[in-house]
Structures are given as C-alpha cells and as structure tokens.
Fold each of these.
Amino acid sequence: MPFKSCFKFLPPVGFPGVVGFLSVIGLFGAVALVAQMAPVVTIAPQPTVKAKRGAPATVTLKVSLPAGFHMNSNTPTEPNLIPLTLKWTGGPLEGGVITYPKPALETYTFTAGKPISVVTGAFDVTTKFQVPAAAAAGPAAQTGTLRYQACNDRMCFPPKTLPVNVTVSVE
Amino acid sequence: MPPTRFFILLAVITGIAVTLGTIGWPTNEPAHKVVKDDKERKKAPDFQLKDANGKVVHLSDYKGKVVLLDFWATWCGPCGIEIPWFTDFQRKYKDRGFTVLGVSMDDGGWKDVKPFVAENKINYQIVLGDDKTSDMYGDVEALPTTFVIDREGRIASVHVGLVDKKEFDDAIQKLL
C-alpha cells in the first residue's frame, strides 16, 4: 500500500483542526504537570463598600480555587487539618460576624474512605459588620487575612495567608 | 500527500509523543525504573536539622545506610497514609542497613509534631525541617515528597505525592 494512502481515512479538517487537536493533547500534559504545583487561590477585587454610620455593612470576599484542588473548610473534621480562616485586623467597621461557605464532605485517595470537610471551586466568605456611629466619614481600608491550606487527591501544599484589603466609604 | 493530511499526521505524531512523554510508554515493563541507574544518581545534599531533643542530625550521619528521607507535615493527609508504611519499613529493614528519616515541615514546630509522633507510634527519627533544607532538595513544596537514598548518599528515587507502598518497598529492596 502506498505510504500516503495509509492516511486517507483522516478527514481534511484544516489548520484549525490541527491546532485544536494539538491544544487538547498539550492540555492533557499540562494538567499532569500543574497537578504537582501549588494552586493559585485568588480573591476577586472588592468593590468599595458603602457604609452608613450606625447601620450594618456586608463585605463579601469572592474566593476561587482551581479545579482538582480542595481546601479544608473552617470546621475541619480532623484536629491536625488547618481550617480556612478569615481574620479582620483593622479598619473602621466593627463586630464582624463571618459566614464561611457551606462545606462538602468529600473522600479522597488519602482519606481511606472517611470523608473530610472541604470547600472547592469558587465560593464566598461573607462578613456582616456594624458601622460605628462615630466612624469618620470618607474612605478607609478594612484589612485582614485569609488563611487556607490546600491539597489535591495525592498531595498537600503548605498553608498560605492572603492579604485582604477592602475599601470602605463611610457616609 | 495533501498539506492538510500532512499537518494532521504531524499533529497525531506530536500528540502521541507528548502524551507518552507525560504518562509513560505502555509496555509490560514498570512505568518507570524502581531506582535510577548508578550513573544518573546525584549526591543527596547534606543538612543539619534538630530532632525533638535538640540534637543536631546530619544526613551524612547515615552514610553507608539506605535512607528513606520523607518530607511531611502533620496537616498533610496523604503523608498520614504513608507514615504507617514507613514505620513498617523501619521495623522490617532496620537491621539490614536501612533507616527512615522524617523531615517535618510544620510551622508550629514540636508542639504540633511531638503529639503526632506519639499518637502514630512513629519508630524512626524525626527532625524539624526549614526552608533552607527544602530549597536544597529542589524547593520541596508538595507534601509528601520522599527521596530514597542509596548507601553512597546518592538519590536513587524521588516520589512526589502519595504513591503505592510497593514502589517504596521495591526501591528499598533493590538498594539493600
């Protein structure tokens, strides 16, 4: 059989098809490599929070964790596991009551069938504050930290602390 | 051959090469060697770290032994699966010139590590790791990361993440 006739079964998909095919294969390899790297957790930029003196104010952090990874919830099922923790350290707002995302009970290769309490994907961490009646008018920074510890199915990465900085406009 | 088919053929060959390079060639042989060939082994960096009693431990203290050097942490679930395997290896092979050395990467130090060691009945030496040691071993970030070191102090195999107990056992037996 002539050499070129071996490939007649291939459809003439054109250059975009070739690029698409290579992309899929390349992605496959890339996923395998990225799985050994620490996940990049992001907190979406916060819009300015408008706060009226003497009224409540809500700050919602939109956190995102790449697919294939999880982090312990704020209430881990094992004492050694490091919880997701938001701490407010400064700013004009007071009395923050934090609501963490609803955790999922998941099993992984390393949990030996015992579910652990985790969060995955994109989620919100919400804090309800009270604006002091004597708060100074104008913009101010509400600062804090978000600590987490992430793993995938086969490995874990050291705990990380992300800075949180929200602009509050007191009216 | 029309140019489009040529590109498809090229794509198929490249794709197969990339895929096999990532996941390994499908043969009846093991996906990778149990241990590296002699000439491929590099010297394991020496370090000095302290154990729970404050005693300074060097890797070079173990020269002449096969060492399973495990970077781990108490908060690392997959590490907790491997630790009973390692205590088993320590028990089985310690009289044949083998030892496990655990390098804990816990920021909390001994207050976190000591209770864990007691609770899990760890029967091998644990030292507290630091960033310098982690960097010496290629910036160990993912845990567990385990190096199997031959009697000459050279790295014979590296395992990142949770792997099968048999992989370690085969490597140890090959080096003993």
Note: Chain B is about 35% helix and 20% strand.
Amino acid sequence: MTTLGYYPGCSLHGTGRELDMSIKALADVAGVELKEIEDWNCCGASAAHNLNHDLAVALPYRNLALAEEQGLSEILAPCAACFSRMKGTTVRLARSAELVEKMRGITEREFKGTVRILSIIDFIGRLMDESLAEKLTSPLDGLRVAPYYGCLLSRGEDIVEGDDPEQPSAMDRALAAAGCEIVPWNFAVECCGGGFSMSMTDAVVDLSNAILTDAEQAGAEAIVTGCPMCHSNLDMRQRTINEAGLGPHDLPIVYLSEILGLAAGIEPERLGLDRHFVDAMRVVERSA
Amino acid sequence: MARVGVFICHCGENIGRTVDCPAVTEAAGRLPGVVESVDYKYMCSDPGQQMIKNAIKEKRLTGVVVAACSPRMHEPTFRRAAAEAGLNPFLLEMANLREHCSWVHEDRNEATAKAVDLVRIMVEKVKRNAKLHPIRVPVEPTALVIGGGIAGIQAALDIANGGKKVILVEKSPSLGGHMARLSETFPTLDCSQCILTPRMVEVAAHPNVTIMTYAEVAKVDGFVGNFEVTIRQKARYVDPEKCTGCGTCYQKCPSKKIPSEFDAGLANRTAIYTPFPQAVPNKPVIDAQHCLMLTKGKCGVCAKVCPTGAINFEDTDREVKVKVGAIVVATGFELWDHSAYGEYGAGKIEDVIDGFQFERLASAGGPTGGEIRRPSDGEIPKTVVFIQCCGSRDEKRGVLYCSKICCMYTAKHAILYRHKVHDGRAIVFYMDVRAGGKGYDEFVRRAIEADGAEYVRGRVSRIYRRADGKLIVRGADTLAGQAVTIEADLVVLADAIVPRAGGNELAQMLGIAYDTNGFYSEAHPKLRPVETATAGVFLAGACQSPKDIPDSVAQASAAAAKALGLFSNPELEREPIVARVNEEMCVHCRACINACPYGAIEDYDITDRKGNVVRTVARVNEGVCQGCGTCVAVCRSNSIDLDGFTDEQVLAEIATLE
C-alpha cells in the first residue's frame, strides 16, 4: 500500500471540506494511505508573503521539516495555495544554502530537502497510474466540463512542472477517463480574484463573472477546479454575482476529486457534493 | 646562426594595460638568437611596420616574431611587410599577447610572465622555420548562388553583368522568394511584384546565368576557386523542355485542396502547380506527396490533357556536379512559429494571423484579390490589432534579438489597411519603434499622423475568441498606465524572423559558421560583413541576420563584388601550409591515404631510369591538401610533416616551456 504524507491546511478544515472528503474517499478506493503531518501549522498563503518574506518561507519550512522527521518523502497538499507555498519553498531552499541556514536558525529545525510536494493534479495522475483508471466503473455520460486551473495550478515554472502555463492540459486525461467531455474555453488560467474574496469582493465579482460567462458560452455544464479559493469565489460568490445584476449564472463548480470520485462510484455525500452553494447534485445524475 | 627580431605591440592599451610591454621587450632581448627587441604602441600602423622592415634590413634578420594580436587579423599585414623588406614571409610568426593573454588575465605580473613565455615559444619556432612559397591554384570563374530570393537574384545579376557565369539554385519551383509574396514595400509603397518580377525575368534570360529551380545543394567539396558542388535536381515530373506553361494541367488537376505555401495557407493549390502566375520559370511541377498518380497510381489527368506530352511520372531526382570558384549563400529566413504563445491562442485561432498572411490578404494577386477579409468568415474586419515583437526579444520562449523589419512592415500593414478600409481601426501594440533607415521614421509618423494608426505602447497579454466571434485582445498601455481590452476582428502578429530550417546542415556542408540563433556568421562583424570564415563563400540577405529588402540587395551586390574580385585573377595564391611525405621513409602502408578527409593523398610510383616501378609511396596533392595534419598524426613511420608546423618546430615550442 502506498503511503503519502497529507497536508490539509486550513481550507480543507473549513471552506474546502468537500475537497478533503473527496480526496480521502478517492485515496481509499485507490488503496493509498494518507498520513497527516503531525503538528502542522499554517502554510502562510495569502497573507504571509505580502508581509514578511522570512515568515512566508519559515512557515512551510517547519511543515517540511516535520514531514521529514516523520519519515514522509511525499506530501499531498490538495489546496492549490498550500501546494504553491510548500513547493515554492522547496524550490527556494534548493537554490540557496544561505536561506536554508537562515530557516534553520529561525525554526530551530533541520530540513535536508528530501520531501516532494504533490498537487491535487499530481495526486490524481498518480492514482490513475496505480489503479484508479480501472476503478472508474461509473463514468459520466459525457458531462461537458471546463477545466479551470486558475493561477496556482498553472503558474511558477519550477512549481507547476511539465505543463504549458498558458494552455494547461494536466487535468484532461483524468477528466476524459471519468467520462467528461472537455469544452474548449478561454478562461482556464484567468484570475478568479483569489485572496480578495473578503477584502475586495467587487473585484472578485467582476473576475469570477467573466470566468463563469466564458464557461457558459463554451457550453460547459460545470467548471472543474482543484483550488478551494477558486471554488469559493466561483461557487459561494455566484449568488453575489447574480445579485450584482451580472449573469444570471447557475453553474455547478466541482472539484476534480469529486468528479473522479463520482466516476469511481463513491456516494455523492461522501464526496461532499451535497455541500455546495450552487447545486452540484445534478451532476450526480449524469454518472452511470 | 639565427638572427631573430622581436616586436612587441601595446595595441593601444589593449595589451599594455595588463602586460608590462617594456619588461617583455627586455626579457625577449636576452633570449638566445634574438638580436633586436623593441616595443611600440601600434605595431600594425605604418611606422610600426616600418620599424620591422628597417630592422630586417639593418640587422639582417633571419626570423621575426611580432607579439601582438591574433594572427587572424594581422598576420597577412606583417608577412606582407616582411616580404617587402626581402624576408620570406613564412619566416615571420606572431605571438598572441592580446586574445591569449591581456584580454583574459587580470594580474599584471602573471600576465607579463605569460607574455614572455608566449614570445619565447615563437622565437624557438621561428628559428626552425623554413622558407615557404605560396601555392598557385587556378580559379574557376563561375559562381554558385544558393537561394533565388531577391538577395540571390541581385547577386546573380551583378556577377553575370560582371561577365562571369552564375549557377542560381532555388529549392522551390520558382524564383522570387518571400519578396514575391509581399503586397507593397516600405517606405515607398511600391508594388513588390512590379519591382521584383522584371528582375526575375532578367536573371532567367541572362546568357551568363543558369537557373536551377526545385533543386538543392547536396554536397560541397573542394576549396576557394575550386569548389565541386553536387546539386540535387528534384523530380519535377514535367519536362521543362516540352512544357509551354499553358496551364491546362493545373486547371484540370483533381487534387485541389492542398494549402498553398505561397499564399501562407490562405488558399489552396493543386498537386501539379506553379506557385503563382508570374512564376519564373513558368513551368509547373508535380508535388509527389499529393499527386494521386504518384501516391495511388491512378488519375493521370494532367498527362492526358497536356498538349505537348510534357508530363513524365517516371521522373526521378537527379544529381548534377558543377565546378565553381565562389559560392554566395542567400537562403533567406522564415517566420517564427507563434504556436509557442499559448496566451495568443497557440496558433489555433483562425483570425490570429502572421505577417505573411496579411501580405497575401493585401496583395492584388492574393486569395482575396487585395481586399482585407478575415480567414474565418471572409468578413471585412473593422478593428485590426497588430502586435509587434511577437517572439522577438523574448529570451524565454522566443528569440533574444530584435527582428529589425517588423516595426516597418507593421506600419506598412496599418497604412495599407487604413487605405483599404476607411472606417476601420488599426491598433498597433509596440515595445518601442525601431525605424532606423532612410525615410523609415517618417514612414512610421505617416502611419500615425496621416493614416490614423493608433499606436499603443505595451504588450498584449492575452488573445481569445469570444463566443460571438470577436477576438478579445487584452494588454497594457504603459504610457497611460492602464490595462486595455480591445474587441478586434483580426489580429496580425509580427512574428520574429528566424533562419531557414535545415540551415545548419547547409552550413556544415559549406564549412561556414553559424551563431547561436542559426544565422550564418560573417568573417568579421564590421570589416568583413559579407565574407565567411571559409574563403570563397559569401553571404547575402537574411540568412546572415534579419534584413529588409534594401539591406538584402546591398549585401547581395557586395557579395557579388567579392566574387568578381576573386575571379579577377586566373590564379589564386594559397598558403603553402601543406603536408609533405618523406618519400625515402614512406613504407606505403596507405594509412594516410585512408585518413585524409580531402582525398589529397595518392599513390605515387617511383621509377628507375628505364621507367620500371621501383617503389610506391604516398604523395600529397598540394592543390587539394588543406593542411589539417590528420595524415601526420596517423603516419606510422613518422614520414609526414606539415610545412610550417613540423614536428621539430612544435616540439621546440613545447620544450622551451619546461
């Protein structure tokens, strides 16, 4: 049985509960054990790197050091922001011995750099390679989806490796295997407003509206994402967008892991599909 | 007894800044055999050369060492001076104190010590130098011009008008190159075809010019004055002798859906075709990949309708060997493939086109008859966005350099569009406008002021096609400091200029160098801009760097002048650095004959007085030997030496370093 380290971060305990649930259910089906890093702390996303660069590196550094101490060589960070911060930290540390020294001083912990960070897309790809592909017994009936990467699953050339940042395609294989039809659309890497959901909701309303509009015009029946921030901006704010006189939209926003879970025949409630703001249960009917 | 003179050059401050030249002079003066040692600020200048000449005469020198720059530039200068003073020029050697010492070191004491070593090495060598005499070889007064675009046409015409023969090789079925595809030309807006096609006809009709279209260079042997070039004439399947160019064949050809290279994919052509109606020669070829007869064995319509029986499906590629004295390379350029830019639609949005496609839309002979109509639906676009520097100056995904001609042709495109669509908007995104050239900046001002092109300084970050068909162009206006979004109907990308695919292989055949971008390298970036490092091979046009038509034509004429200069003497002097076999020691193992990359070594029978063969040995053909030294290294009996670089000389150089 493969064992992966697991870093849920704050999102997966809060707004991104469905992501946590669907990832765990999927790991279960694929026979992968997820071992949560003990005593993990905040990854620093959204705020720390705007305030203090040392803090922004020290926070993930401590998590990485803990993982290494606990014998974990690969860590799944399903939240795109956690992934970006943690993998970004491994990249920065690999580039600078000076930074490693500094972080050792700040956190009073050793990190030798033996830990690899996986995104949700890396993780699903891994499951597909192992055994998930054969277990997709209830594929969708050609549900037309717009794969949405946003910034954190497309950007940072050392962080998101092996994909075109402007025209990413890393989700395509798994989505096709799950029986989805991928619509060609324009906004796969556009900004959803990210961390401004609370502080500048107006910006989020405009940006997310543009994404929803383009997906609808492309004929998508759902947007598939891997990022809890994108999810909350597109799902939770959809009503706000409609109230602002835009839209009106009624587009389910689902996690990649939820779609794969459905195709694997996992009950929708175990995936958290009943917890969405915009009704996502309608995609359940589309699975065999 | 050797009497060597040493002349130390400061090269202004180039050497003197790092090397203590007076100290080197003094040290050199104490070397055994050195009878004269002086230093001077510029040894290559007239007074510097005079110092050397006077010393040769007054001190009766038997050898000279000039310690200065690389021999590449000034060895001929100093050897000429030595010869003028009556010394065999091959008794003069250079020690490179600049590239090999002052430019690459910082510590003055160490650099000075190294400079002394470099001088000592050359003193030891020159003491062992022998008088050598240049080898004279005949020159074949015929030029090969590779590439039938405007640069190749101009070079061929100039050489032919100079009274020498030219073979002009073009890989496509017609002469004309890219210029034949252009609409109008900056900065005067004269019609490209109108100024080009008469030139095409003129070169084809010239009695001194042999045209070979649909042909490629396959192999190059020999050396300056005596190249042997193998040209592969691709199978045309149409006998040019019988064909009258009536055009019945391509009107009847049923394979009509092949994207036309000439029209940049905006129109289709047939399998038997001439690229454009004004093609020279105006004789079609059959594209074997698309011909039904040649791929599936059925059809043959062209053969049935041809009134002169010119179609020959049995035709094959043929190789032709020609002897030429000079080669002009004019292979041109192509456009960078913008599908690398995902943010611009990765080449998949139909109405995001490149510069050549716009040229074809704007051409009277183009697929739209000169009306600007967008490819997707044939509508006349009311807002056209032009984006400069697409791939240029992009170290990460494109090319590092400026493609030079895009600022001008974009301004031209904007003007042409505004002339044709009066109520249309032409919006140009630029990084900066580089319009150096006669009448060039005035032309850009005209686009802005007289023709109303809207210039926006900034980069476009995104192009996508909205569901209603509009192209949404988002970018930055960095002068206004704000983001802009434009709803466009057509986008024209000024893709970077890149060398022709396959250019590296041709360079290797010719033995010429190319830079990191694949452009062919000139011998000197300032003083020898049309020559290559290989004697007798010259460059013209955009194969050397991005160039517009005036620059290409100017360089082509310069290359032609170089070729004519070469042809002005019936014979050529070659450096006598050739291998020599000691025939008394040669055991005729033939290792050298097998190893020689130039086929310069042959069996030679030594006969007695009655003509009976006594012994067979290896002998070097001086005319063919390139002095590479391979045979010296493989000779088992140590019977071969290289004149000017004998084992004795080289070992003496090494020994003095102990």
Note: The longest helix of chain B spans residues 108-127.
Amino acid sequence: MYWGGFIFTGMKKRLWLLMLCFGLMNVALAQKDSLANDEHGKYIYYHVVNVGKDNADVLMARAIVFFDMPANKASFKLTSKDANTKTIDGTGFFMVASTTSLTKHDDGKINFKLRIEIKDGKYRYWLTDFVFIPYYKDRYNNLVPKPGTEIPAEELNKKIDNKGAAHYLDECAAFGIKFGTRFKQQMENAPVKTSNGKKVVVTEKW
Amino acid sequence: MKQKLLLICALAVSGLAAKAQDSVKVTSDAPLVITGSVDAYYKYDFAGKKISNIQTSFNNEQNSMSIGMFDLGLKKKVGKAAFVGEVSFGPRSDASLPTGSTNNHIQNLYVSYDFSDKFNVTGGYMATFVGYEVISPTGNFNYSTSYLFTNGPFQNAGVKATYTFSDKASLMVGIFNDAWNVYQSVGDVSTFGAQLMLVPVKNWTAYLNFISGYYSGTEFDLTTNYQITNAFKLGLNFATYSQPSLKSSSAYGNGGFTGVALYPQLAVSKAVTLGLRGEYFSAKSGNTAATYSGVVPGESVTALTVTANIKSGPLTFIPEFRFDNGSKNMFSDSNGLATKSATQIGAAAVYAF
C-alpha cells in the first residue's frame, strides 16, 4: 500500500496509520457525538471535569469570574448562584449561520440554559433548553429575529427541513465543546488578585 | 526519515482535530454581510391578453414569463457604527424606485450609530417604516401587493432616532424629505415621521405609524402581527391617508384613501404555508381628490388573494389566485368593456440568499 510515496510494512507503520486515522476520526466525531438527551427528552451537552486539588470555593470563584470576563459578558448571563450548594445557573446564546446561503451570514440565534455544579477537585456543567430563533431580512436590509418564532431544539425536525435541523443541532454540540474548552481554561487558572487597587496576574501557576 | 515524516503528519492531523473543535464562534464577529434575492413570475389575468387590470404594484406583465428583480444588499457593523447599501435591478426595482430620473437603483443607503444599547440614530435613504408589505419579494407572503402598499410611501430619505425602552416597546421619530420616494427633496426636509412599536403580549407585535408633511400629506398606519399558535399567524394593516393642501405639490388634493387588510396564515407542514389576504380599500371623496390604483374618489374595491408558500431551502414557490371586486366598474373584461371585477392567477419563484 502506498501513501505519499511511502511503503507501509510492519507493525510500526500500522501504528502510525492508526494514529492518523484516530486524528481524522476526531475531526468527524468532535461535533456529532456530544449532544445527548436528558431524562426529560431534552437535548443536553453534559460534562464532568476533574481539576485536581483545588477546593470548591476556589473553583466557585473562578466560575463566577468567567461570567464577568469581557469576552463572555455579551453572550453569557449569570442568573443565580448559591455559595452553599456551589451551584451556578446562567443563560446564553450563540449565532448560527445558514448552510444554504451563497454567502455566510447569521441565520438565527440559539438560546440556552447553563448549569454548573462544583465540588472539591471537580465540577460538572450542562447546557440545555436550546431554542432556535430564526432571523429574517427586514425592510432596512437588517437581519433581525423573526417575531413570534421560537423553536425548541427538540422540535427542529418538525418545523424546518432535516438538513437545517441537523446543522443547528451540530452547532449546539460544537458550541458546547467550545464552551467546555474555554470554561476549563478559566477553571484551571488562578483567580486575578488585586494589590493596591491595581490588577496583577499571578504567574506562579499556569 | 520516513517515520519522522509520518509522525509529523499524524500530529498535524490531530492538531486539525483540535482546531476544528476550537473554531466555532460564540457570537457573530460582524463580518461584511451580503444578502439578496432574485425572483421571476408568471401571471394571467382572465380578462385577456395584455390588459393590465389590477393596478397594484409589480407583477403587472400579463401572460408572460417575467422577471421581478435582482436585489443585493451589504451591511457592515464595527463597534457602534454600521452602514447598509442595497441595490436592485429589474422591472420590480424600476417600479419601486425613482430610477427613471436618476438611474441610482438604490433601495437602502444609510449609516447608523448606536449611541447606547437603547438609542440609535440612522440617516440616509431608507425603506419606509410605514405599512405592512414591503418592496422585496422575500419580505411578503403574497407575491402581488395590496392597494394600501401601492399607494403608501416606498422610501423616506431622512434622519431618524430610535429609543428602545425594552424588548416590548420602542419609539422612533424622524425628519424626512418633503416628497416620498425621492433621492432628492423637492424643496426641503419637512416630513415628520414617528413609529411606536409595542409587544402587548408574547408573539404579538404592533407598529403605530404616523407620517405627515405639507408636501406629501398625512398617513396614519397600524401594522400588526400575532403568532397565535405555532402554526397560525394573523396580520392586520389599517391605514388612512389625506392629501396635502399645498397646491404646488404633485400630491395636492382634498381626498385620500382608507383601507384595511387582514392576513391569516396557516403552516400546514414545515414546507407549506397557506395564506389569505382580504383587503378593503376606498378612495376619499373630494372635488380635487385623487384616484388610487384605478379606484376613483368615493368608490372602493375589495380584493381577495389566496397564496401558498412552498419552501425548499432558500427557494420559495408562490402560487396565487386573486379576485378583486370594485364598487363600480373599474376593470376591463375580455372584450375590453368596463366591468366590476378582475381575476388573476399566477406563480412566482423567489430565491433568497
């Protein structure tokens, strides 16, 4: 068998090939297998993450900071937090682009609910209650939400074409992965401390 | 050497996998947005060959495979500032713009600035805020247009300020060119316009519109839509217009019009929606009153339009049946004689991108 001019023989070559295939699989499976159904039949993106020796108070502080970060303020909103039970509830949204348009532009918005629960050394989170709000072009050539139209993710296949529904569900999973990565970065970093009113970054741990 | 190259390739692919996961955007980063549409239609009036019977806007070509327009719009927003530019070409465009005098082909050309999350100012040449129906075929359920749309403004060039009290209420006030539908004012910028947007209950949006100027006259307009159930939506448009008393104005007169249109729509499947437009339109009496779309002062017309929207991705197929009945003879029959009613069927295809 030839690939790029090289001949594959022996176990070592098969192992390299296996690694290559694994990497390609990751690209394909990264989005498809991450959206599940909860006990109520709702789509959910759920993860449990172990973060080592940090206690729940530290993790709680870091999680709250996530919502205050300028990059996250526009799209995430902290709706409630409980320091006793170490739980956080929030909402958020992300935009989705059309797959059928000749040019890429926002096709709609997906709202979701976020729940974070924290214990010593670990936390779990889930995104659920995904609701798609389609956009349309108004008379002023602006893409704006279509009034009166909100489609829960569980009903997408009933309300829009199958290809579009599958695309938006993929986007939900992809967003969950993206959120998980960013949130994990925040949860593993030390909180920002202040000294004499000035913000400083603690560099001893990264 | 071969093993090192294979290792590099495997790592590169794994890196691609990680990048694929990390490349999803959380929110739109406001790229240059390009949108547009094309449309074509066929219409047949049962009165005969080339009689243009129903005098509402657009789709006026009889018994012909005809084109509507090619529309292309650009929008870019950076921070608080945005611009929109939209051009169009084709018979529908020509009928909706003052193109004959300028060849500008501009549907919208304006700049906008968000002074805050709640306060915006926009200035330029803009589609009118008045009325239920719009110029773009992608914005209407029916392919043919109503008498209210045809006789109201199409564009108003000017400056407007909008304050959003909440997602349930906003107020716009503006000052616009004296004449409607012109790239340049006749004399000054003297038309006052205002719009109050309300959401009385969830899924019900209402717009109260007012536009008035000594040159173009005064129109009150109510436009509202209520998504009553997931499948059923009801729209309503009511308007009354009075001509200006300025004798030098092209719109001068002591007449005007009043009309109301109802738009019930039912989604029977995810691809098919059926809709009805029932309109009553009357021209006001007066010795210098104008005629509107063939409706003479003191007379009226009732128009019933049955339309389907059949969607497949960006394409919408629109079959339509229309029956207009006047209070007096205002149409022509197949012999060219005056008659009270007109019947048309048609089909249109609209592609939006």
Note: Chain A is about 35% helix and 35% strand.
Amino acid sequence: MPDIFVNPPTPNLPPKPSPIVPDASPATPPAFRKNHPSCFSAFALYPDKVRFETKEKEEKVVLFLRQHPLVNVPWILLVVAMLLAPLLVGRLGILAFLPHGFELILILAWYLLTLIIAMENFLDWFFNVCIVTNLRIVDIDFVNLIYKNVSDANINKIQDVSYNMGGVIRTIFNFGDVVIQTAAEIEQFEFEAVPNPARVVKILEDLRFGKGERESK
Amino acid sequence: MVGTLPIFGISIWPIVKIAALILLGLYLVFALVVVRQVQLMTDTVGVGFEGPIRAFSYLHFIFAVMIFIAAILIL
C-alpha cells in the first residue's frame, strides 16, 4: 500500500548556536574574584580587605554594604554650620560680656563638641555595615558608642528578600531598604538605605538558590 | 560689676570655672570611652582604614586633655 504522507528528507543542517545569555548570576562566579574598592565604598562586590570578628576561614565575603553616602549630608551640613558659628558670634559680639579666657575656652569647647558630633556620625556610618558571605548574612550595628549588635543568619535560612525605595532622593540616587525574612532566630534583617537595592536582592536570590541546589544534590 | 551676684556680692566666675572644669573632666572620660569604642569597632569590622581612625580617636582625646589643661591655666 502506498504511503499517504511521507516526510521530506531533512537536510543535514549545522546545529543552531545557542543564544548568548548574559551572566545573570554575579554572586556565583566560578572562582571568587577580588576587587579593591575604596574603604569608604557603600557597595563593594567581592571586596578583598573586608574582615569581621566572626568570619570563618573558608568564608568568602561576597558583598559589603553600608548606607549610601548621601545619608551623611545632614550631619555634614550641621558640622559646617557649627564650624562657622564662632566666626559669626565673634562678629556680632555676643560673647563680649565674657572675660577673655572664658571666651577662648568656650570657643575651644565648642570646636570639641563639633569634632565629637562629626566623629560619632562618621563612626556610625562607617561601622554600621551589612556583610553577605557565601555562607550567611551578617548585620553589624553600633547603636551608640556603648552598644553593639551583631546578628547573622545562614543563607539557606533566607525565606524572602524584598526591597523598598521611596522618595525623590532615593529614587534619583538609587538607594533603599532591603528587607530579608529568615527562618533563623532573628526573623527579619533590614539593610537600611543601601545603594542599588535591586542588585542586592538579585545577589541574595542567586546565593540563596545556588545554596539550595547544592544542598538538594 | 559684670559677673557679680548682687545679693551675695560674690563673683560668679569662680563658680563658672569649677563648672567648666567638671564638664571638661567628664568629657575627658567620654573621650576615653570613644578611644575604647573605636578599638572595639575596628576589631569587629575591618576594611583597611583602621589605623587612621584609631589615630583620630587618640588625637581627639589629646585635644580634650589640652583643652582641660588650658581651662585650668586660663580660667
């Protein structure tokens, strides 16, 4: 019986090249890269100089975060105003009723106060950091000069990662809060005012799912 | 006379001097706490800028000591 339908012979075509997909997983490179970001950087991927108290030997820092430098603008303006204030007061002669020695000590004490305000705010910004390693997330907070809070959670305990970025300044300069829900003892981590929050979320998601795949194998 | 309490007839400046010295003395203690806290902070996190920050905390303490001494001598 003759065939009703016969497939035409397929030509021997070369295999189609697979589409080039951009590297969508910056958090899981084949080998850990080392970068040399500035020590004042607020967003550092694979920084080489970062160390922290509870870091383990095999642990690699993937991401180092602190608040966007713009959060420092209010206290910098305050410090500049405080530095200029004695000049203005001297011109207006407000302290003229004080004896000469008192006036001098008062101005020196004022500069001391200005210095400590600048120092406290700088230290607060510089040392309140969030660190993402290949094993866990670490949130280091110095609430004031005498209170320290270090909390961490394993990457595989992360349940949900989200971010919010509201307001004109934050939208223009691309910084916002990253909120991480975990199944660890501390249920919620909040990285406040970090630069590029969408990328932070992406990196955390990559680490999270990469970890999950390795564990399920 | 400026700085003289009219009721008791005594100058207020010695009282102000003692108050200023007490405040500056308390500030010295605070400056020491700052030095200690900076040490703790740099031990907790390190990014390669610990030396200058520690040096700055010591300079701040020295500045506070100098003002305290100046207050004793000048006031």
Note: Confidence is low (pLDDT under 50) at residues 16-28, 211-217 of chain A.
